[in-house]
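Dataset card, provenance and construction

Sequences and ligand SMILES were collected as paired inputs. For each pair, a complete structure of the chain with the small molecule in place was predicted and serialized as structure tokens. The example below shows a pair involving guanosine-5'-triphosphate. Curators did not alter the output after generation; any descriptive sentences attached to a record were derived from the structure itself.
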Amino acid sequence: MGILEKIEQIKLELSRTQKNKATEYHIGLLKGKLARYRRQLLEPAAGSGGSTGQGFEVQKSGDARVVLIGFPSVGKSSFLSKITKTKSEVANYAFTTLTSVPGVLEYHGAEIQVVDLPGIIRGASQGKGRGRQVVATAKTAELILMVLDATKSNDQREILEAELESVGIRLNCSKPNIHFRVKKTGGIKFNSTSPPTYLSEKICYAILKDYKIHNADILVRDPECTVDDFIDIINEDHITYVKCLYVYNKVDAVSLEETDRLAREPQTCVMSCELDLGITDLVEAIWKNLNLTRLYTKRRGILPKLDDPMVVRHDSSIEKVCDSIHKDFKNGFKYALVWGSSAKHSPQKCGLSHIVHDEDVVQLVIK
Ligand SMILES: Nc1nc2c(ncn2[C@@H]2O[C@H](COP(=O)(O)OP(=O)(O)OP(=O)(O)O)[C@@H](O)[C@H]2O)c(=O)[nH]1
């Protein structure tokens, strides 16, 4: 039996099994197996080089990457052509976007790469080479924009969420608070800081046995952790936690009440590409969600260039700043002078571990 059939069989069994206390052990085991097969499906077959020739690859560039995911004809190309310099083909028939069209959004001095992913993740959960690369691209994004059609039912969102979930992409959540370490000897040790509500030692042992892991330390630090969380932790290398903004387009075609209702949902923006509504608010929401830090670098005795910031990730240290200038830069580093909200006094003399804030001014002093 191929992996795809095995996956289908487990999904069928899961849908047929009633959820209750008596079946939770069985369900947990099935979920563990499902995650294992899905992982295998996404791993490139040995010798294939991970590609089928009709590859999909977009070089990462700029300060951050945003990917657009959505069903055909929801308006992804229209949106992309509004916010970026790249012109992409717009047509009123499905599947215009056959290959990816990367564009660059310039905002607050940052260059944000926006990639329109071809189709949805469909192919990937079927183990197709191209779909696999689409998933890999989505996993390198700092933000996913799920573009939805406000005139259609919410099924579109549920289908996309399930697709992303099945390829190991977790939206708007953080890694479960479980410490897990595989060891060479010593058997399996299960501990928790307070009694877990949903996880049991028995189910963790059974799942690990199925994964052929016989020696490991488990420490559950959050009592609300579930079996799904535990499975994510043992498959950690294949799971990516990404922020997602839900974007409802075509609100010109729905009532004001409906637009208002959608706009009030968490992590949601509404827009109409046709009427040019909500686009600037969405761009601002993208910026806020990316949480980038702008730094103005200066030389001694010269005012900083306020129109040309250097952009680094949130919570970056001076070391990261040096690395983004040049990989050897920190070898010659002596100290940094920092002005702005991260400095206790202006300027503060800082070392490599100092964490910078948005709009700080930094002067790097080298030996
Ligand atoms: N009413 C309305 N129609 C829109 C809006 N934005 C886009 N459309 C229409 O929707 C159709 C699809 O737009 P595209 O931008 O090509 O959609 P897409 O998601 O890129 O589609 P694919 O390339 O097939 O994936 C076009 O006919 C657009 O004119 C909008 O805000 N309101």
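Derived descriptions for this record:
The chain has three domains: 3-43+176-238, 64-173+239-290, 293-366.
Residues 70, 72-78, 90-92, 94-97, 249-250, 252-253, 272-274 surround guanosine-5'-triphosphate (CB under 6 Å).
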